[in-house]
Every structure is written in C-alpha cells, then in structure tokens.
Design a protein that fits this description.
Shape: globular
Distance between the termini: 40 Å
Strand content: 15-25%
Oligomer: single chain
Helix content: 25-40%
Structural class: alpha/beta
Number of strands: 13
Radius of gyration: 22 Å
Length: about 400
C-alpha cells in the first residue's frame, strides 16, 4: 500500500539505524503487553483513505459500514499541501450515519519548521468538510506520525523534530477546542525519535499492532498506553467496495472502553465512567483458573444480578453465568472475562456502598497487600485502604473505587 502521496494508516517495523532524532542509535523496543485479543473488545471501527476506493473508484456504503462499526477515522491531509480526494465526500456520508467520526492528518515534514503549516492545512481542510471537533458524533482529530516512503522504501522522516509535533498538536487543539489523538507505534518512536515519546504524553494514543493474537501494542516510551488499537490492515468490511463486486478490505480497530465512553468522547453527552488508566491492562480470566480474580468475577456477577457461588474456582457454573451476563450486555458470549467484560462488570464504589461488589473490592485490596475485613461494607477502614492503594499506584487518592482503581487492582 503506497504511503505517498497518500496513506491508509499502515505501519511496519523499521530496521534502519539512522534517523534525524536518534543520532544513529537504535533502541530496544518497549515491553509488550500481554492481555486480550482484539475479539474481546466490543467497540470496533475502521479508518479509510482514497486507497479504499482505488480498486473500483466507487464510494463506500457508509450506512452498511455503520451496521457493524461504531467509529471511523478518515484521512484528510498529508504534509502542507496534499488533500485526500475522497475525504470531503466520505466525511459527509459517514456523518449521515450513526458512526462516530474524525479526520486524520499524515505528518510529512519537508523542513524542520513546517509543523505550523501542516496544522493550518489540516485545520482548513477539516473545517471545509464541516468538521468542528465539537459537533455531536465528532471524535477528536488525529495526528498520524510514522515512517514515510522514499524511493520505494519506508524511512524515518529526515526533517522530523519533536518541536514540530508539539506545535502541530497545540495548534490543532486550540483550533478545535479538543485534545487530539495521536496515531503511531513504539518501534517508530524508538527508531525515529530516539525513544523520546514525551511529546505524546497526555494525548490519547491510537497504536498499531497486527497479527499479534493476545499481544496488545507496545507502550510508547515516555507516553501512555493505547486508547485505540489498529489490529489489522486487511479485514473485509461490508460496505467497503472490492474488485469485481466483492467485499473490500480496510484497517480495523478497537476502542479500549465502552460504547458509552466513546460516545461521550464524541460529544454525545452523558457521564459514563472513565476508561481504565492508560498503562493498565485488564487480565483475562477464563475457565479452569482459580484464585482471587475468579472470586472477584463471581462476586461482581452476583452484584450484577447473576448470582454465582464465590468459591474462587472458574468451573462450568461460573462459565454459564459469565455467558449469560455477556449476552445481556450484548458482548461476545464466549465465557471468558476479558477487558470488555471487566468494564461492564465493575462498578464505582465509595463510602457508604454495601454488598457483594464491596466484598470483591475488599478481597482485591487484601490480595494487593492492603488488608481489610471483607464485610461488604464500605466504611472508614475500606476508604483508608483504597486511598493507600491509590497513592501507591499513582492514582488520584480520593477513596473512590472507579475503573482506574479496579483495573490497577486486578492487573497486579
């Protein structure tokens, strides 16, 4: 897939030893996060560019795409001049569906000082297509930072500088009044930015990792973990045109959270719970396992109306209850508790809360070295232990057990 003059957000690992920001150093890749496969995440979407039209010259059937996808990112611009010829049409058509959507810009520096020019080009193009960043259904804009193609080879952009990226991100944030999303990957940051990804800290990350099974994308050095995961560049997506009237392929992605959380990000109101703190991964709990995570699942199932014996053994009875809960939540009913199921199971608890969910919290606190009596009552002692745990894990020590705290507890 050609990366220039346009690109469909495709990444490959770079093996080059010279780059403008590395001074010739090639750094070791970041540790991989072993958690859950893409199939365990319930909120999926695609990203597109003119490449998705090249085989046929035909438009995408966005209404059909919306039947099995919640969101889409569409290429708008590249560098300081290029505009994707299908962007305006695709954005208008996607906006007429239920799809949550946003434009993206492929960063392609021609000098060490064109970050502002690229930002202005992107802002003008996105606005001309009707994107404001604050309309209902609009996700934050995206900056795509990766290798470029020169003479048929993928290389680090010679003129890339962290200062340019900072200027671009701040300019776009000011224009659209929303924090942009950054698309990249750890190997690029290591090979082309000297492992210095601090410029991306505090920005939601959209990372790529293909064919990895249950291996999530590697963390970007100096930044947080992923919010979106592009797990393939070649999944058949009904609605995307293919050659000879076949179903075409597109990049496919998952969102690390619930649909309610993504809708809140897309200006659709509500006050959903916050997704897990970046850098933490929900564990996968499945049949045959034993221990406190299993008993936690069992207690939370009971709290959610699916009464389960809390014996710490993941047997056939627990499997059946998990499947029933997943089915009720419109999740993939596979009987395995992965990130999507965890985020539906946990509930925010605070002083005064009572019941089996509180008992699950207390068991987890004890398992993490913050011993507390598992009496099912969220009293002063439990509040103190939650605060101590939060402080130890650099969480907001407010004594309220929300998704961030639950994720940190069970991913010990």
């Amino acid at each position: 897939m050609s990366m220039r003059p346009s690109h469909a957000l495709r990444l490959t690992a770079l093996g080059i030893a010279t780059a403008s920001l590395t001074g010739g150093a090639v750094l070791a890749t970041a540790p991989q996060s072993a958690a859950a496969p893409p199939s365990s995440y319930s909120v999926k979407g695609i990203d597109t560019s003119h490449h998705n039209h090249d085989a046929t010259g035909q438009p995408i059937d966005w209404k059909r795409v919306a039947q099995k996808n919640a969101f889409t990112f569409l290429k708008a611009t590249q560098g300081s001049r290029y505009k994707d010829p299908w962007f305006a049409r695709d954005f208008e058509a996607a906006s007429a569906t239920s799809l949550l959507r946003a434009p993206y810009h492929f960063f392609d520096p021609k000098s060490t000082r064109d970050g502002a020019a690229q930002a202005d080009h992107f802002i003008r193009t996105a606005r001309a297509a009707g994107y404001s960043g604050t309309k209902a259904g609009e996700l934050p804009p995206v900056l795509d930072v990766e290798s470029v193609r020169v003479n048929g080879k993928e290389v680090c952009p010679k003129a890339l500088r962290a200062g340019q990226l900072d200027i671009f991100l701040k300019r776009v944030k000011a224009a659209f009044k929303v924090t942009p999303i950054v698309y990249t990957r750890a190997s690029f940051v290591n090979d082309c930015m000297g492992g210095k990804g601090q410029v991306f800290k505090d920005y939601p990350l959209w990372l790529a990792r293909y064919g990895s099974g249950a291996r999530e994308p590697q963390s970007v050095p100096g930044a947080d973990s992923w919010t979106f995961w592009q797990y393939t560049e070649s999944e058949r997506v009904p609605g995307v045109p293919g050659a000879k009237d076949t179903v075409g392929t597109a990049d496919r992605n998952v969102y690390r959270g619930t649909l309610a959380q993504l809708r809140a990000m897309a200006n659709l109101g509500g006050t959903p719970t916050t997704p897990p703190r970046p850098g933490t991964s929900w564990p996968t709990v499945k049949p045959g396992q034993r221990g406190v995570d299993v008993s936690t699942v069992q207690l939370l199932l009971t709290a959610r109306g699916h009464a389960t014996k809390a014996d710490g053994v993941y047997g056939s009875g627990t499997t059946a209850k998990v499947k029933a809960f997943q089915k009720a939540q419109h999740l993939n009913a596979d009987g395995i508790v992965g990130p999507a199921t965890w985020t539906r199971l946990v509930t925010t608890l605070k002083a005064g809360s009572k019941g089996t969910a509180v008992k699950a919290l207390q068991h987890q606190l004890t398992a993490n070295g913050h011993t507390v009596n598992a009496d099912g009552t969220f009293g002063p002692a439990t509040t103190a232990k939650v605060k101590a745990f939060q402080k130890a894990h650099r969480l907001t020590a407010d004594g309220i057990a929300g998704p961030d705290t639950w994720a940190a507890l069970v991913s010990r």
